Amino acid sequence: MKKILIDTNILISAAYSRKGLPRQAFDKAVSSSLYRCLICEQTLEEFWRIANRKFPERIGDFESFMAQALLLMEVISVSADAYDAEKEIRDIKDRPILRAAISASVDILLTGDKDFIESTIENPKIMKAAEFVTPRKQNES
Length: 141
Hints:
With 141 residues, the chain is α/β, with parallel strands linked by helices.
């Protein structure tokens, strides 16, 4: 079973709309026996901060989504230990998310964040929603 850490932007988009790739990726991750889904404490705090700031009129929808999501995901803490790989992440506010992923030995970090996507980090594997929903075959060029 692979461990997958789901980042804030995937969760916000999935909570906002039942359509779209972030929701499809979220649904695939939490409904498959192939994955153990994780969320770090910082992501959870960021989710609520963004939801309250950007979508106060939809906060009930976000509460319902997260109540269900937390039944399907494990909340992990952010390690106090820093890792060299963190230097690959431009936005220092995103570094604790990578730290949580590394300390929990996560296989996949599911995100739409450019700082993760444009990094050269290979472990955990950084995946966008589209890539996770429809993975390329190994033998394709």
